[in-house]
Design goal:
CATH superfamily of the largest domain: Ribosomal protein S6/Translation elongation factor EF1B
Number of strands: 5
Shape: rod-shaped
Number of helices: 5
CATH topology of the largest domain: Alpha-Beta Plaits
Helix content: 40-55%
Largest sheet: 5 strands, antiparallel
Number of domains: 2
Distance between the termini: 94 Å
C-alpha cells in the first residue's frame, strides 16, 4: 500500500460513521473500520497479556533480586565471621581468662571473715586505731552480691593514706566509698575516719 492509498484510507476513516456499524456482521465492515477494530483488539490483548502475565513475572523478578541482595548480605556477614573466627576464639579465651581472674579476686562466704581480718591488719600496719569494723547486710544485685563493710578508725592523714593504699593492694577486691574525716579532739593531728568498704561475691547458683 503506497502513500496515496494510506492518505485515502485515513480520509475515509475520518469521514466514516462508526455508529452505523453492524456488530453482528463484522465481515461486512469496510476496511477502515476493520483496521480500527484490529488495532483496538491488539491493544486490549497486549494490555491483558502484560497485566496477567508479564506483570507477575516482573514482580517475581523483583522479589528474586531483593532476596538475592539479602542472601548476599548474609553471606558477607558469615564470610567475615568465618575469616575472623580464629581471632574471635582468641578474644573469647582472653575474656574467659580475665573473667576467671576477676572471680578469683572475689571472696567466698568462708573467706569473708579472713578478708575483714586482712583489712584490720592493713589498718594496724598503717598505725590506725579501729573503733569498729563490721559487716552490714548484703545487697543482692543482678549478677553479684554486694557485701558492705562499715569501718571506723582514728589516725592522722598519713596513716589514713597508708590504709587506703594497703586496702587497694589486697588480693581480694575491696572498694572504698562514702568516707568522712573529722577531728576526734584527742590531738591536733588526730582524726576520726568513717568509711564504707564494699566487697563482692559472684552469684554462682544463678
Amino acid at each position: 500500500m503506497n502513500t496515496a492509498q494510506l492518505k485515502e484510507q485515513w480520509a475515509a476513516l475520518q469521514e466514516f460513521d462508526f455508529s452505523s456499524l453492524d456488530f453482528e456482521n463484522v465481515g461486512a465492515w469496510p476496511n477502515p473500520a476493520k483496521i480500527v477494530a484490529a488495532i483496538f483488539v491488539f491493544i486490549v490483548v497486549a494490555f491483558g497479556g502484560y497485566k496477567f502475565a508479564i506483570e507477575d513475572v516482573i514482580k517475581q523478578l523483583e522479589n528474586a533480586e531483593r532476596k538475592e541482595g539479602e542472601l548476599r548480605q548474609e553471606f558477607e556477614i558469615k564470610a567475615f565471621k568465618a575469616a575472623n573466627l580464629p581471632l574471635l576464639k582468641d578474644q573469647l579465651a582472653e575474656m574467659e581468662r580475665t573473667f576467671g581472674e576477676l572471680l578469683g579476686q572475689l571472696p567466698t562466704d568462708t573467706e569473708v571473715p579472713g578478708l575483714l581480718e586482712d583489712i584490720s591488719n592493713r589498718g594496724e600496719a598503717s598505725n590506725l586505731n579501729f573503733s569498729s569494723i563490721r559487716l552490714l547486710e548484703e545487697q543482692k544485685k543482678e549478677f553479684y552480691i554486694e557485701l558492705p563493710i562499715a569501718i571506723t578508725a582514728q589516725g592522722n592523714y598519713h596513716d589514713m593514706g597508708g590504709f587506703v593504699s594497703g586496702v587497694a593492694a589486697l588480693p581480694r577486691i575491696v572498694t572504698l566509698h562514702d568516707f568522712s574525716i573529722v577531728p576526734d579532739g584527742k590531738s591536733p593531728t588526730s582524726l576520726k575516719l568513717e568509711i564504707l568498704g564494699k566487697t563482692y561475691r559472684y552469684k554462682e547458683d544463678e
